[in-house]
Amino acid sequence: MNSRDTVLSRIRNALSDRPNVELPPPPEIWPDTAPDTDSMTKRFADEIAVIEGEFFRCGSTGEAQEQLRTIMQDVGCKAIAAVDRPLARELTSALGAETVAWAPTDIDMPQGNPEGWDPPTMEKIELGLVSADYLLADTGSCVVECRNPQERMMCYLPPNCVVVAKTENFREHMPAAWKEIAQRTADPDRRGEFVVITGPSRTADIEKILILGVHGPKRLFVLVVG
Length: 226
Known about the structure:
Blueprint (H helix, E strand, L loop, with lengths): L2 H13 L21 H14 L3 E5 L2 H15 L4 E3 L3 H7 L7 E3 L16 H4 L4 E5 L2 E3 L4 E6 L2 H6 L5 E7 L3 E2 L2 H12 L7 E5 L4 E3 L5 E3 L6 E7 L1
Parallel strand pairs: 1-12, 2-3, 2-4, 4-7, 5-8, 7-12
Antiparallel strand pairs: 5-6, 6-9, 10-11
């Protein structure tokens, strides 16, 4: 037995006859103030503007579809790639089947990458579309579930990224969403991870010159329907 084991053994023996003590509740670092949707929308819009993200609140699906077309014209692309989710299907339904390439949805992806969805090919995608599970008002962040590598790369590789969500996806801050996230990740059959997107990719060199788009999208658009 080494000295570490000896010390730990003495601690265990010293504590063995003590009664169990109930753990104190975790401190409330971010109080839950239950703001309304309009308040969270405004704060989210303000926060994402600071980090050079582009936010659009659309009153209807039709308005969001028109805004998506405007974004495509703005970035100069005629086709997009998207992660297959119900809201993404809704907003792209008016574009035509040949305009949208849907990322693979297989959770248990076989070894390698499906044809056309390897990283070098995905780097050529001009605009990617993903759906957010949660929008965090206090930081202007989008929380996106990615079930396989291709869905995850859709958040990073295209130089232009559109995140779509509904107003019901707003949460005040991460602790307000954490219980839901924890319940979902506790499912042993669930695969993948959650990615938190906070504005366009930003980095700076030693001279503090800010560069956009080095480690992720250069432009980030968030469309909220409702």
